[in-house]
Amino acid sequence: MKQGIRVAEAQEIVLQHVQPLGIEKVPLLAALHRVLATDVVSPRHIPPHDNAAMDGYAVRHHDIAAATPERPVRLPVLEVLPAGKRPTQEVKPGTAIKIMTGAPMPAGADTVVPVEQTNGSDTQVAIYRAPRPGSNLRPRGEDIALGECVLQQHTPLRPAELGLLASVGLAQVLVYQQPRVAILATGDEIADPGDADSADKILNSNSYTLAGQVREAGGLPLLLGVAPDDPEVISQRIASGLRADVLITSGGVSVGDFDYVRACLDKAGLQVHFWTVALRPGSPVTFGTVGQVPVFSLPGNPVASMVTFELFVRPALRKMTGHRELFRPYTRAVLQESVQKRRGVRTFLRGILRQEGEEATVTTTGAAGLWHSALHEPGQLPHRPSRRR
Ligand code: AMP
Ligand code: MG
Question: Is the pLDDT reported for residue 245 higher than 60?
Fold first, then answer.
């Protein structure tokens, strides 16, 4: 078991102990924000056949090469072809087929003359100008060729990717399973919002923040409620939490007289991989496994709880859900004030980033305990027009 280690080392240890879950097939729309579990190869050409890129006339270029406004080329029109219909005839030398955008190119034709360069007739077309040979058509497979890999395994599926999967004909898609993440709050002083007799209690905010963080990281939160500081109750809840894919506990991991979480986890068979990280806030964070189930014991302080989730749980959930990008992007900015920091302790402060021309600057939002101040920074509140009466 490691103690007081660096953040990066702790993150590595966590990632060594989690693996992507299994895969499942879901309807296309249910795959939004999930991660693709296979390469996807297109089973068709897109577009499926050569087709007209403009409304006009499908012709043999050779026939119309000499067309000018003064000496138009006149050709009989064999048929009028809407998009979605197949041609019934071939364009033989000296003939044309009137064709709409998206309609399949008839055999024999190699060029589309835009309707604007003709008299627009349905029977006998006069062509005033010859476009370049082969112009105004989209060849079969121009967008996607049959057999082409359109998306790779581990790609997160956003709206554009769903459309791409639909366009190659997939109604269902193989994605990584979502981890079920049990969340247990602890503390005699903690009550759930809505509980009776909560007037002089501290309300359980951590479970809801954590559940939101779990969801945003691609997991499925399961709220196990608040356990009192009673080893028997805590042990029962831990046992049900261990039936999930991941267990998070919140609070009760300090060394106070009533901090039973660690002892109860030990009793449940926890193999501890690290205990405490050189980090502020959140140093008492503990990570271990019970069998295959990763267990994160996060400190009860709400800011520490969020920070340690962000640093250790989120990358783990991303790995389990098949993501390749496990960490958030970061940027450098010039701090506009002095802050206190202990040597050798990675310190996280809430900041407000501003981009002013070339320079990025950052200011802190105030004292660490006052985390709600981050939400109420006046400059950051979006302007909302006053409501009409
Ligand atoms: P603990 O880690 O149990 O010593 O708790 C540290 C601090 O966090 C205490 O002030 C607790 O009241 C507070 N705290 C613990 N759990 C929660 C929770 N679920 N929601 C909000 N605050 C909590
Ligand atoms: Mg406590």
Answer: yes
* Structural domains of the chain, ranges and CATH numbers in brackets: 7-22+177-320 (3.40.980.10), 24-46+150-176 (3.90.105.10), 51-138 (2.170.190.11), 331-388 (no CATH)
pLDDT greater than 60 at residue 322: yes
Query: Using a 6 Å CB cutoff, which residues line ligand 1?
Result: 185, 187, 189-190, 202, 204-207, 250-254, 256, 299-302
317: left (phi over 0), alpha (psi -120 to 50) or beta: alpha
Residue 258: band (very low, low, confident or very high) from pLDDT cuts 50, 70, 90 = confident
Contact 144, 46 (CB under 8 A): yes
Q: What is the pTM of this model?
A: 0.86
Count CB atoms within 10 A of the CB of residue 159. Answer: 9
Which residue shows structure tokens 């795959």? 31
CA-CA distance, 267 to 265, in Å (whole number)? 5
E strand or H helix at 61: helix 61-64
Q: How many angstroms does the Cα of residue 251 sit away from the middle of ligand 2?
A: 5
For position 180, what pLDDT does the model report? 98
CA-wise closest residue to 206 among 300, 132, 318:
300
- Tokens describing residue 244: 């999930």
What is the pLDDT, as a whole number, of residue 6?
Answer: 97
C-alpha span between 103 and 215 (Å, rounded): 45
Number of neighbours of residue 16 by Cβ within 10 angstroms: 9
**The predicted structure's pLDDT at residue 25:** 98
* The pair of three-digit structure tokens given for residue 80, joined into one six-digit string: 């009028």
State residue 259's pLDDT score.
82
222 CA to middle of ligand 2, Å?
A: 21
